[in-house]
Amino acid sequence: VDRQAAKLRGACSAATRPVHLGKIMEVHGITASLGHSCVKDMISSGRLRGQLQGHSTNPVFIPSLYTSAQNQWADSFYKQNGYITFEMMQNKGIDNPHSVIARFVDSVSLSSGCVSEGAIVGVQSIVEEAVATDTYIELIDWMFDWCNEADEEEVLGLVLANSTADLFRILPSKAVVSVSLLNKLLSSFDGKITEQVKSDAVNPKILATFKKFDNAAASAEIKTVKKAKGGKKGKKGRARDDDDEEFTPPKPALGPTYLSAQQIEDDIKDLQFFMDNEPKEDTTLAEISELLKKELNDKYCKALDEEVRKKTMKSSKSQQKADEDTINILYNTIILCEKGLKVFEDPTIRAQIEKHILKTLCLELTKATFSKLAEETGCPFQGDNLKLDSIVGYLPKNAKQFATSIITSVTSGTDVEEFIQSYTELTDPQFTQLLVRKLDKKKERNMVFTKKQALLEQLKTEQNSADLLNISCNLIFIKQHSTLLHVPGRCISSVVKLISKDFSGPQLETINRSLSSVVTELKGEGTMSGGDKQALRDLVSEILFGKQVNEVTEL
Description:
mainly alpha
């Protein structure tokens, strides 16, 4: 037995790596039970350094020298690299890697192995320096070459535990970029964005895209608010809570895009910073560009929105002023025409003229005013869909009676003065932002003068006989009564009769001949001659300026 034990001790002592004792025992004719017992006893007594593993029929002897070498390799790798994985140790033949890791007192255990606290602190300092010096760091990549996906977040959390989250961004490649650097890169595009916005703010295609984006975003916001405020009804009529049904938010609308990630990368790679600090990884610049893309597009859209709103506001103010001017001219024209109709003594003629003013000038003023009121109150019936009756419901309570009275006047009324009173009440500053004012005497005279000058210009070139007579009657009426006239065609003969009361024989003959010629022409039985048209122009000149002038065009 001693001889057999000596053979086994010699063979095991010479081994530098694990050996199967079954072959050795077979060569020396040693039974399995005896061989296993002898080696076990020698290990226990210290005569043989190592350990036995496996079944007794073919045990494996692992020499202490081999185990020591494994431990030395694990210790050395961990010390040099700051981490070690189970897979690495198993590839080196270490059967119990957990026991190895247990020896590292400064390690953080992971599912894939462990990492040293010193390595974590070292990388923390590198990241902190990158954040503090407005740069980026790619060295963190080494920490993820050996991590599995489950460990990546844990390691990253440890590395960034002492850094303020608002001061850095993490790229997909796990590089860390200072927010200050990103802000500097964003600022480098400010001038280009400003120039682009100025150009795009007048580009119809860009504006159309922007309007669709703005409307879609507003619509999505309204739907979200509605969803948040109320739930659906259950079977018994109860309102279901928001948790009863998962709400899927609408897909975001795509607005105008400033630059693609590739265009951004092409721009920033030529910056002095990246020329001095060229990235080691090809993906770093691409990932930074992708990170900048959303910020730049948001910045561009915001600037475009401000520019469009600024132009729209300026345009709106101009349009508001233009609308107010139109409304004030109509309002004061009606007041002057109301004064003019009082000159007619025949109640039948007056009634016809009043209805004409209400159906024309007053109706036009009502539509223009109600359109502005619809804008102010948010009434949906605007533009081509303007509905006078529907707008009343959107007006303040105390204003509704005046609006209703106005609508009655322009649809079936007979009193212009009543219309003016109701209109004046409705456009009081307490009900509208419109500034509607009655002209003072001086401005009223200026308005009449302006109207007279416009009619004189028309008189020079007008060839239609009926219109020429109408213009002539208006000019003579203005001269005689210092106010305006607005009558239907069927009342023109009454106007001629009124303005010609004090005419001399030739003047009366001219105006009556002109009237007869117009009536004949309207019946299709003849036309007014060129001589008669000129005679009518000369008559107007004589009445207005107190002399006969054959060339009205010189006035």
